[in-house]
C-alpha cells in the first residue's frame, strides 16, 4: 500500500494513538487503513451410492498450485454467509448441484493471513462440469485420493478428518465432528535446531 | 474507495474479465481492489467455583453500542490464529488471564460483512481490569445476565447457546457443542408484508 484510497495522498506505517501495532495511515486525511485476514470457504461434496462413497476434487487451472487437486473453495465475498460462499464456490469451480450440511473444519493459516473453512455437502446428481478455474472434476473413492498431488495442506487435513469420521460412522463409532487446526510455518529457530 | 492504493489514480467500479461482480479497478495500473468480510473473535470467559458459575462481560467505552455489555471480542489481525485473536482481545478489553478452550460459536452477519466467532475460556484468576475500550468488567451469574443491554445479537445468541449447553451438562445431558447461526437483516419485502 502506497497511497490513501480516500484522498490519494501518500500513506506511512505508524502506530495510531491507542493502538499497539503499525498501520498504514494517511499523512493528509488521517484515515487508518486496516488490513485483516481473509476467509476461504469450500465444501466436501460427497456422492454415496449404497455405501460406495466418493468425494469430488477439482484440478486447478490457476496459480498457485496449477494442476494439483483441491476441494472446491475460494475467497468469501461481502454480503454472503459462510455457507453461501461455500455453495457459490462449489457451483463456480465444479458446476455441482449440492446440499450444504454442517460446518466440518476450520483451519488457520496465519502466515498467509487466511482462515479456511469446509462444509460437508451432498451431491444431488452427477451433472457437474469444470468451471473456468478448473481443468478437470473427478470423483475419488477413499483409497483413490491423490494424496501426493493435493494443492493445499488445509485440503489434505480436511480430507483426512473427513475419511476418519466417515469410517468411524460406518463402523457405528460416532458421527461427523467439527475439526479445527492451525497450519504453522516452520519457525526459523526450530529449523536451525533440527539442522544442528 | 476513490483512489488506487498502489498508484494513486482514480478507481472505477467494473466487473473484471472472468469475474461476475463489480470490483474497484484502477483506471491506470489495472489493480483490482477486492473487499472481503472481516472476522470478529472473542471469548466466553468463565469462573466456576464449586458449581457457582459466572460469565465475564465488558461494558463498552466505544461506539457502536457505547455503554452496553458484550463478551470481549474484536477484529482478528494478520499473522494470528483465531484462538490467538480471541485471547488477545480478552487481554486488551478485560485484562483477563484465561485459558482458551474449543471454538464454541460462529455467527454470520452478512449485511455488515462480518463473521463473529467465540471460544470457551476459563479465567485463571479474578485479577481483571477494564482496558481503554471498556468502562467496566463484571462477572454475571446465569440469572443476572443483562439481556436487554447486550450490545450485539451475536453475543446474546452465544450466551444463550452457552447457558443451554452448561445447564444440559450440569444435568448430565451432554457437553458443550459447536453452534452456528446467521443473523439476517429483516428484508424490505417481509417488513412491508408485516405492515400490510
Ligand atoms: Zn487520505
Ligand atoms: Zn493503480
From TrEMBL, chains A, B:
Gene3D superfamilies: 2.20.70.10, Nucleoside Triphosphate Pyrophosphohydrolase (3.90.79.10)
GO MF terms, alphabetically ordered: hydrolase activity
InterPro entries on file: NUDIX_hydrolase-like_dom_sf, NUDIX_hydrolase_CS, NUDIX_hydrolase_dom, Nudix_N
Domain Nudix hydrolase: 37-167
The keyword Hydrolase belongs to this UniProt entry's keyword annotation: yes
UniProt KW keywords: Hydrolase
The keyword Hydrolase is assigned to this record: yes
Cofactor(s) listed: Mg(2+)
Name the UniProt record assigns to this protein: ADP-ribose pyrophosphatase
